[in-house]
């Protein structure tokens, strides 16, 4: 019996390799817009973060997304990430 492999991605804060489903993707597209990618399939430079409020707060404090996406990430993106995690947990 062959089981298909789950795609793994690395959280840019914790540096852990985890299944893609356990991460949230943030994308910067060609126009420089930065947004949360619900589908995980949008075009652009992507960065993965663990679905954990503390990880999001650490990313915000250390400006990890800014470095990874090579752009200034607005606070509203972090707020959206936190809101999504809270919604998923409830």
From TrEMBL:
Domain YlxR: 9-82
One Pfam assignment: YlxR
Coiled-coil residue spans: none
Name of the protein described by the UniProt record: DUF448 domain-containing protein
Species of the source: Halobacillus litoralis
């Amino acid at each position: 019996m062959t089981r298909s492999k789950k795609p793994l991605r690395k959280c840019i804060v914790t540096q852990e390799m985890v299944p893609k489903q356990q991460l949230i993707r943030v994308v910067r597209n060609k126009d420089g817009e930065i947004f949360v990618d619900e589908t995980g399939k949008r075009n652009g430079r992507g960065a993965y973060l663990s679905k954990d409020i503390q990880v999001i707060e650490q990313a915000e404090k250390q400006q990890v997304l800014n470095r990874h996406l090579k752009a200034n990430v607005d606070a509203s993106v972090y707020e959206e990430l936190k809101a999504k995690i809270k919604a998923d947990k409830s």
